[in-house]
């Protein structure tokens, strides 16, 4: 990876995909601390018209994007009433447009889910500095996505705290990574139910699942953290980001979330990145790499830390996590199926159509039952068709289970 070089005469222009979400708002917070370095070119949102309108009034981007014509028109009316001339675009193609626009230097990819794949690919193919907070681009896209990064000459910078930690522990020259790494260790807090008996999770509510002990996150990723599916997706993401075998990616429970991840080197020395659990740190690093800038996060006070503890990621307590290695060992495209099933499972749980303890069961059954055609994994269209087929299969299972009292076997 080589850093993109911006002219010293102008600020770095950035498009933020998913600007009203947790990562998007944290990105804007970091940008607000460095107005001399960054300029917001485009902002996008999924449904929060009022929040995006307020962001546009503050940041005055050239472009803004909403997913539908109706929402785009609502945004236009609000901006017009405020006398703002930001151009409002709509639909998936508009996301690809702002991700690949020739005047854009950097793209913060903070859209949640497989919907972020195409705009991430557009940014990669256009050779952008791509700040990747959308792990599904790698979970779904895998080799195709990494090929686009290489062919487009993009600079790929991980924003997930764990992958940013690994990246910060490695030399800048990617070709040296394989010679240095024995394996990596991703840390996980264990979520809000780490100490709870797995047999008592049937009555967990969405509000309880979204109450993460250490991090402030959106609802989907909070549920993923509670089931440890977030860590499962991160295992898959790390395999592609750092060109590792699945066996080289390991996970340990670290309840304090102070050590964000570790690299175990070939000489058995261990490099770790530590810090307060604040997403502004990896965001600031991605924005400024290979330099470092002020993030707004608190400095870690070592004297106030009572202890740093570690536990094994037990398969009985965290069965969702172990689906990652199962999917990586299965037919190509299985990680796409796993991600699609999980998105349906989490949405169904948040809509109170699925119990918390059924999320893993749905993911496991979809992964086990859906056959994959080899032709589906050779193109983006094929992968997205597989994604939709897996979603339809998962929705069918949810419909079947809705009238059932007993927990389906996992």
Total number of helices = 16
Overall structural class, as computed from helix and strand content, comes to alpha/beta
* String of helices and strands: EHEHEHEHEHEHEHHEHHHEEEHEHHHH
Mean pLDDT figure: 93
Give the strand order, joined by hyphens, for the main sheet: 4-3-2-1-5-6-7
Domain 1-deoxy-D-xylulose 5-phosphate reductoisomerase C-terminal: 156-242
Pathway: Isoprenoid biosynthesis; isopentenyl diphosphate biosynthesis via DXP pathway; isopentenyl diphosphate from 1-deoxy-D-xylulose 5-phosphate: step 1/6
Family: Belongs to the DXR family.
GO molecular function, one term: NADPH binding
What does this structure look like?
The chain is an alpha/beta fold and 410 residues long. The protein has a domain at 12-158: Rossmann fold. 44% of the residues lie in helices and 15% in strands. It has 16 helices and twelve strands. The protein has helices at 22-32, 49-59, 69-81, 92-100, 117-125, 136-152, 161-169, 177-180, 206-209, 219-227, 229-241, 280-288, 319-329, 334-350, 359-369, 380-401, and strands spanning 12-17, 38-44, 63-66, 87-90, 106-109, 129-132, 155-158, 181-188, 249-253, 259-265, 270-274, 311-312. The strands form two sheets. A seven-stranded parallel sheet has the order 4-3-2-1-5-6-7, with helices on both faces. Helix 5 links the parallel strand 5 (106-109) and strand 6 (129-132). Helix 2 crosses helix 3 and helix 4 (92-100) packs parallel to helix 5 (117-125). The longest helix is centred in the last third of the chain and has 22 residues, at 380-401. Mean pLDDT is 93; it is low at 1-7 and 405-410.
């Amino acid at each position: 990876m080589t850093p993109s070089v911006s002219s010293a005469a102008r600020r770095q222009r950035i498009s933020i995909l998913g600007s009203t979400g947790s990562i998007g708002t944290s990105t804007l917070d970091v940008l607000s601390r460095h107005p001399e370095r960054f300029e917001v070119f485009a902002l996008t949102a999924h449904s929060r018209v009022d929040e995006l309108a307020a962001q546009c009034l503050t940041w005055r981007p050239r472009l803004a994007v909403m997913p539908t014509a109706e929402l785009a028109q609502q945004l236009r009316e609000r901006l017009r009433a405020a006398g703002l001339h930001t151009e409002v675009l709509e639909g998936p193609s508009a996301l690809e447009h702002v991700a690949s626009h020739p005047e854009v230097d950097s793209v913060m990819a903070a859209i949640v889910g497989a919907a972020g794949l195409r705009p991430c690919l557009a940014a990669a193919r256009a050779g952008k500095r791509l700040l990747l907070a959308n792990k599904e681009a790698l979970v779904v896209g895998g080799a195709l996505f990494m090929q686009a990064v290489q062919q487009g000459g993009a600079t790929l910078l991980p924003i997930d705290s764990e992958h940013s930690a690994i990246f910060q522990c490695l030399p800048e020259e990617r070709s040296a990574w394989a010679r240095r790494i024995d394996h990596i260790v991703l840390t996980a807090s264990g979520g809000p139910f780490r100490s709870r008996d797995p047999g008592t999770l049937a009555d967990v509510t969405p509000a309880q699942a979204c109450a993460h002990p250490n991090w402030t996150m959106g609802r989907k990723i909070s549920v993923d953290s509670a089931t440890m599916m977030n860590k499962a997706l991160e295992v898959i993401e790390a395999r592609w980001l750092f060109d590792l075998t699945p066996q080289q990616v390991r996970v340990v429970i670290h309840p304090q979330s102070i050590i964000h991840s570790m690299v175990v080197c070939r000489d058995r020395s261990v490099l770790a990145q530590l810090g307060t659990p604040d997403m502004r740190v990896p965001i600031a690093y991605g924005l400024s790499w290979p330099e470092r800038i002020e993030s707004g996060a608190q400095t870690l006070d070592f004297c106030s830390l009572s202890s740093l503890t570690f536990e094994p990621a037990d398969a009985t307590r965290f069965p969702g996590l172990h689906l990652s290695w199962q999917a990586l060992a299965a037919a190509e495209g299985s990680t796409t199926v796993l991600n699609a099933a999980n998105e349906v499972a989490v949405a169904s749980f948040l809509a109170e159509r699925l119990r918390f303890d059924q999320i893993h069961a749905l993911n496991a059954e979809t992964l086990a039952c859906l056959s994959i055609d080899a032709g589906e994994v050779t193109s983006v269209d094929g992968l997205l068709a597989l994604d939709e087929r897996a979603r339809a299969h998962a929705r069918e299972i949810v419909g079947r289970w809705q009238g059932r009292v007993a927990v389906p076997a996992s």
